[in-house]
Amino acid sequence: MDAKLRALADETRRGILALVWARERTAGEIADRFEMTRPAISQHLGVLLDCELVAVRREGTRRLYVANRKGVAHLRAELDAFWEAGLKRLKRDAEAETGRRRR
Fold it and tell me: Is residue 92 scored above 90 in pLDDT?
């Protein structure tokens, strides 16, 4: 989870993920949307690939990038579990405090 959150902490990588969420795109198409070099975009794509938020497939000589919805869903499930556990602790503590105040 940490690597995915670090990857998404970067505004450019969030933008790339948003672009490839709707449809597959080449690195060139992605780079055209940002004011940075193609090698810089390739580095961002590498980070997203490493943490499984983006997938790539080859079509001839082209590489097409698309959001890895399973990877994103896995991160969301981890975050949901994290928040659920925290909310349960908060509820338990609040109820305990209410019980102490009533005595």
Answer: no
For the record, the structure tokens of 59 come out as: 């079509």
SS3 64: strand
Burial 16-38 (b: 16+ CB within 10 A, else e): bbebbeeebbebeebbeeeeeee
Digit-coded pLDDT (tens) for 50-82: 999 999 999 999 999 999 999 999 999 998 988
Residue with tokens 């499984």: 52
Q: Count each helix (H run) and each strand (E run) in the chain, helices first.
A: 5, 3
- The separation between CA 45 and the C-alpha centre of its own chain, rounded to angstroms, equals 12
What number does CATH give the domain 2-102? 1.10.10.10
Sequence spans of domains, the chain: 2-102
Alpha-carbon torsion angle 31, 34, 39, 41, nearest 10: -80
